[in-house]
Structures are given as C-alpha cells and as structure tokens.
C-alpha cells in the first residue's frame, strides 16, 4: 500500500496545484484527510500499548503510579481517586485469588452505575479473570440464560434491592453458582455470601503481573451482552485487543488526561463500560458517573463538574430538548458529545439550543471488528465510507444491496454481491481478515457465530462481518443509519424504513417521539405502517389528527404513510434509550388488546379516525375479500 502522502499528492496533481480547484472537484477530500490524521494519532497510541504488551489493567496501574491523588471517578458528589479505586480493586483481587479460578474462567457482575462496578472489574482483571457484565434490568428466563451462557463460576451482586429480588427469584436455577451480595446484612448461608464484610477484611495487596500470566490480546477481558431484542441476550466476546480498540473512540475525538467525561448510560453497555471506561483509563482522565440518566439534573451536573465530554445513547437527548428552555442552556465547557442513536430530526435542534460544538455519532456493534465515527459534524451522519478511507483502512467497509425482508444479499449471476453506489442504501459489512476468520464473536455455539458472517461476497472464499444494519451512502460518502434489517417492513411492494418515517413524524412540534413499526393485516401481503406517538404537554389528540394526516401526505410516499396511530401515555424505551417495539408489534392494531387511544387512516375523508371494534372487524372482513 503506498504512503498516504503520495496518494493525496497524486490526487491533487489530477486537478493541478490549485487548492480551490482540488476542493471543488473533491469537496469531501478534506474530511478524509482529517479522519486519517486523527485516526493515525489514535492508532499510534494503541499500537504503542500493544507493542509494550500493556492491557487495560496495566494502563490503570500506571495511572495510579503517575497521578495517585487525581480524581478517577466522581460519583454522587464524592471523588474516588485513582489510588482509592486501586486499593479497592486490590481487595477484590485478594478475595478472588482464594476462589481457585484461573485465566479464562468467568465471574459475572450484576452491579449498577457506581464505583463498585469499576473496581470489581479491575480487581478481577488483575488476575486475568473474564468478567461478564450482566444487564441488571433483565429477569427470569433472560437472567438465567445470561448467567449460564457465560458459564459464570461466581456472581457478584450489587446492593440494589431489585437486583437481589431478581436473582432470588431464579436462585434455584443457578444453585451451583456462589452469589456474593453487596450492601446487605447477610450471614454465611448456602444461598448468599456477604461481600462487604469479606472485602473490608481483605488486604489491598496488588497482585503481581505473574498472576495474569497467560493473558494474550486474544484472551477474553469481558463479556458484554446484546440487548436481546432478537431473542435471548447473547454474550459477546470482548478480548483484550478490542478493549484497547474501544479506548480509541475517545482518543480519536481529543479526550486526554485533563478531560472530564460525563457518563449516564449503564456500564454494562458498550458505550459506557467499553468506550467510556476504557477510554478514561487509557487517557488517565476523569469520569463523572451517574447512577441513572436524569434530564432534570443533566446540565446541572455538567456545569458543576466542569465536564468536557459527554456520552449519549439512543433517545437521551430528546428528553433534554423536552425540558423548558433555561437561561443557562449552552453555558458549559463541553467540547464534544460521543454516542450513537441520535436521530436526525433533533440533531440540529439539540446542537443549536445547547451550543454543543461537536457531535460525534458513531456506528458499530459490540461484536463487530471495526466502527465508524462522524468527525465532520455532518448532520445525521455516523461516519464515512470513501474510496480513500477504504484504501488506507486495514479492514475496509462496504455497503451491499440486500433484500430487507429476507435479509439476504442480492447476488449477481456469479453468486457475488453488488456494491451500492453513492445515493443508494443497503447493508453495511466489513472485511474479516484471514487471521480472524476462526474468531468467535459470541461465547456459544458455532451456528450463532456463523450467522454474523457473509461469505463469497466479492470473490470466492472471502468473508465479511454482517452488522445487520441498513445505511444510506450520500454523494460525499457520508453514511446515515436507516434501520436494523428487521425493522424495515414491506408494504404495497415497497420497503419502508421505520427510522425515516419516525423522523418525518417527529418534525411536528407537538410530537415528542415517534415509534414506527409494521403490523400484519390478515389477507394482505407485507405489513402496514403503524406509529406510536408520544405527545408534548397537554395536546388534545382530536386537535392534531388532521395535521398529522396532512404532514404525512406532504412528506411521505403513499406506501410509507402510517395506516394506524396509537398514543401511549409513556413511550417505552430500553435502559439504553432505544425504542422497544416487540409488544407493540404483537398487539398490532387490535382495540381489544390496546388501551391507548387508537386511530386509523381514512383517505376518503383525509384524516385519522378512532378505531373502534366495529371498524376493526370491517378491516378484517375487507382484507379477506
């Protein structure tokens, strides 16, 4: 591969020495240069750590030696220095050393957003023990499955009462797993063990590096679970190499030792526990950690702690925009926000009102082997896939044509896939190097791993990772997330993106959020569009139905205009502020199952009208004809 400078000079030579002419012909080239420069800086830091044989716990211990009294975690108005967190981590390591576990064994932690999560993880890492980050919101079958699928030898449980009750409910099904409980006065018994007393009595002696001898960059550091929206949660293998790769996201956007990160997403999630925590440690910075996201206290915290970087996920910023305007909106020291799931319909509103200079939307997957980041402030974009970037990226990314219903790539007569041209949309994939083609994405059976691989894409024998997401490529090579493959539905022979319809609906001032999905109508092909709308303030539904009808008619093709509307009092989202659709899809448009106000579209009268049991029966009868 030729050096980047020669390629860029060669490109410039095509149009002569005029910078103006160069930028006129290739208006996007500056974005490529910026990304390549910043990426080179970030990779250089990571490559040096790897060359020196450093893992994340090694970097943490160096932070402790360099700045022992510096604030590492700020939580509920208390500062936890690097030295204090290290002492607690050493106590965890001392306890774990008594369990007789070896490198490669797994300990599950089910702890909320608090410093104990962090020092427990680091203490186990000091011994080379894998750590499974258990989602503390799951219960029953999903919880049992998560603990068994990661083969947890021990479970360390946080002090939240709801977590204890969730585990207590399934205790018989994990009876062979020792459970240590924080924050409860529990005597030694067959069911539970008191963690706090044991930790207090443990010596804060730092384990020697020989205690984690055998750990390589391909060894598992932690297991982070998928959301379970397409089935039960699956444990994603995060090896030590990927942990260091997570850290580059913050480094890429300029986060350094002097900076302060505000983290409210759950630590069991990749954004917070991966990019946020690992990035803070690698830079030697400070993390302001909040137990749960609070719109009311958000900017108050940011100002109080002089936050310079913010993490976000999903619809978090929509809640901030719903707050009444305040004279202090925009008064802060924030340099950038980093996250994913920020929908285009509120992007500029958020950036303008709160004076956020830089929004860095990312795209990736916990089990993926590469990600993209929008470093150009391009509204709505989550990164770039350009010919130049692909030429210099060790793992190039492509967008291929796909049938959004079957999920299968469209192939030519030779059995190979077709790349999407600029202006088109399709399935995003990334190459899997030959040295990684036996790599497991999930801890589990081989079939589950194979489902994430597409083979014989551009030539026989090649392999690509399937993100399972549809994206659009604009004329300047910026990409825009459209939908999860399964979220796109087909109606009247056309493919409908739920995300695009939701963006249009959210353009109405009285709509706080729109959750769009497809529902089955008996006797028809495909799925009809339906939207669950969350309204602002005390808006009367009867006053806005005609406006919704007209807005959809003016901004959406006929096949994409929702046939049904429901108005739930509260919009359901996951712990990471992603919309939930499973229950909505199951209930369909059946008024016997739905207690929310329910309406149907009547094109003859150009409005939406209440969907009664009688109308519902008429639709069903008509659809059978």
Describe this structure in words.
The N and C termini lie far apart (63 Å). This protein has three domains: 51-373, Rossmann fold, CATH 3.40.50; 396-483, Luciferase, Domain 3 (Luciferase, domain 3, Roll); 488-624, 2-Layer Sandwich (GMP Synthetase, Chain A, domain 3). Helices cover 33% and strands 21% of the residues. The strands form five sheets. The protein has an eight-stranded mixed beta sheet with strand order 2-1-11-10-12-13-14-15. It is globular and about 75 Å long. Strand 19 and strand 20 form a beta hairpin. It has 625 residues and is an alpha/beta fold. Residues 500-578 form the AMP-binding enzyme C-terminal domain. It comes from Potamilus streckersoni. Its EC number is 6.2.1.3.
Q: What topology, given as strand order, has the largest sheet? A: 2-1-11-10-12-13-14-15
Q: Over all CA atoms, what is the radius of gyration?
A: 26 Å
| Total beta-strand segments | 28
- Which structural class best describes the helix and strand composition? alpha/beta
Through-space gap between termini: 63 Å
Mean of residue pLDDT values: 88
CATH topology category name of the largest domain: Rossmann fold
Topology:
Elements: H1 4-14, H2 19-25, H3 29-51, H4 56-66, E1 71-75, E2 78-81, H5 82-96, E3 106-110, H6 115-125, E4 130-133, H7 140-149, E5 152-157, H8 161-169, E6 179-181, E7 193-194, H9 195-201, E8 220-225, E9 235-239, H10 240-252, E10 260-263, H11 270-283, E11 286-289, H12 295-304, E12 309-313, H13 316-321, E13 336-340, H14 344-353, E14 359-363, E15 372-373, E16 383-384, H15 387-392, E17 397-400, E18 425-431, H16 446-450, E19 453-455, E20 463-473, E21 478-484, E22 489-491, E23 494-496, H17 498-505, E24 511-519, E25 528-535, H18 541-555, E26 564-566, H19 582-587, E27 598-602, E28 607-610, H20 613-624
Parallel strand pairs: 1-11, 3-4, 3-5, 4-8, 5-6, 6-7, 10-11, 10-12, 12-13, 13-14, 25-26
Antiparallel strand pairs: 1-2, 8-9, 14-15, 16-21, 17-18, 18-20, 19-20, 20-21, 22-23, 24-25, 26-27, 27-28
Helix pairs in contact: 3-10, 5-6, 5-9, 10-11
């Amino acid at each position: 591969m030729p050096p980047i400078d020669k390629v860029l000079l060669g490109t410039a030579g095509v149009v002569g020495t005029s910078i103006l002419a160069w930028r006129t012909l290739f208006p996007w080239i500056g974005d490529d240069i910026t990304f390549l420069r910043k990426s080179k800086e970030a990779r250089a830091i990571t490559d040096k750590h790897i060359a020196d044989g450093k893992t994340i716990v090694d970097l943490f211990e160096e932070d402790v030696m360099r700045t022992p009294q510096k604030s590492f975690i700020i939580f509920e108005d208390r500062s936890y220095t690097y030295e204090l967190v290290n002492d607690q981590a050493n106590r965890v390591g001392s306890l774990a050393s008594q369990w007789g576990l070896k490198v490669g064994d797994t300990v599950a932690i089910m702890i909320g957003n608090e410093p104990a999560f962090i020092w427990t993880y680091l203490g186990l890492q000091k011994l080379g023990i894998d750590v499974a980050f258990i989602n503390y919101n799951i219960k029953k079958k999903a919880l049992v499955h998560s603990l068994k699928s990661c083969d947890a030898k021990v479970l360390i449980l946080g002090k939240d009462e709801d977590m204890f009750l969730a585990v207590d409910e399934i205790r018989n099904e994990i009876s062979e797993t020792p459970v240590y409980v924080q924050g409860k006065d529990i005597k030694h018994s067959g069911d539970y063990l008191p963690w706090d007393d044991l930790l207090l009595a443990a010596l804060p002696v730092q384990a020697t590096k020989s205690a984690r001898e055998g750990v390589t960059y391909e060894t598992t550091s932690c297991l982070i679970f998928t959301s379970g929206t397409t089935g039960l949660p699956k444990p994603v293998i995060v090896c030590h190499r990927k942990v260091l790769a997570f850290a580059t996201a913050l480094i890429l956007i300029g986060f350094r030792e002097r900076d302060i990160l505000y983290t409210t997403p759950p630590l069991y999630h990749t954004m917070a526990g991966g990019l946020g925590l690992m990035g803070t440690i690698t830079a030697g910075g400070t993390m302001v950690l909040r137990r749960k996201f609070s719109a009311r206290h958000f900017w108050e915290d940011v100002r109080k702690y002089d936050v310079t970087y913010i993490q976000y996920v999903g619809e978090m910023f929509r809640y901030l925009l719903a707050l009444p305007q305040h004279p202090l909106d925009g008064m802060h020291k924030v340099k950038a926000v980093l996250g994913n799931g920020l929908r285009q319909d509120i992007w500029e509103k958020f950036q303008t009102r709160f004076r956020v200079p830089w929004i860095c939307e990312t795209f990736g997957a916990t089990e993926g082997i590469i990600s993209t980041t929008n470093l150009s402030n391009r509204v709505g974009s989550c990164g770039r896939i350009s010919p130049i970037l692909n030429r210099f990226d060790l793992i190039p990314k492509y967008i291929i044509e796909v049938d959004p219903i079957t999920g299968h790539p469209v192939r030519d007569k030779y059995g190979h896939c077709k790349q999407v041209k600029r202006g088109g949309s399709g399935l995003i994939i990334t190459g899997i190097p030959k040295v990684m083609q036996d790599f497991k994405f999930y801890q589990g059976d081989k079939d589950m791993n194979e489902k994430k691989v597409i083979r014989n894409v551009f030539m026989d024998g090649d392999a690509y990772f399937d993100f399972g997401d549809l994206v659009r490529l604009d004329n300047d090579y910026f990409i825009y997330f459209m939908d999860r493959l399964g979220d796109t539905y087909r109606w009247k022979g056309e493919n409908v993106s739920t995300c695009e319809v939701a963006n249009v609906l959210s353009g109405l001032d009285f709509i706080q959020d729109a959750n769009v999905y497809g529902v089955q109508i008996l006797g028809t092909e495909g799925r009809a569009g339906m939207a669950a709308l969350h309204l602002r303030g005390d808006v009367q539904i009867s006053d806005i139905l005609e406006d919704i009808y007209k807005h959809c008619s003016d901004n959406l093709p006929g096949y994409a205009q929702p046939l049904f509307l429901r108005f739930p009092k509260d919009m359901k989202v996951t712990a990471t502020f992603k919309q939930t659709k499973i229950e909505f899809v199951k209930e369909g448009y059946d008024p016997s199952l739905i207690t929310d106000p329910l309406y149907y579209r009547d094109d003859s009268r150009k409005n939406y009208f209440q969907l009664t049991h009688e109308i519902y029966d008429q639709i069903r009868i008509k659809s059978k004809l």
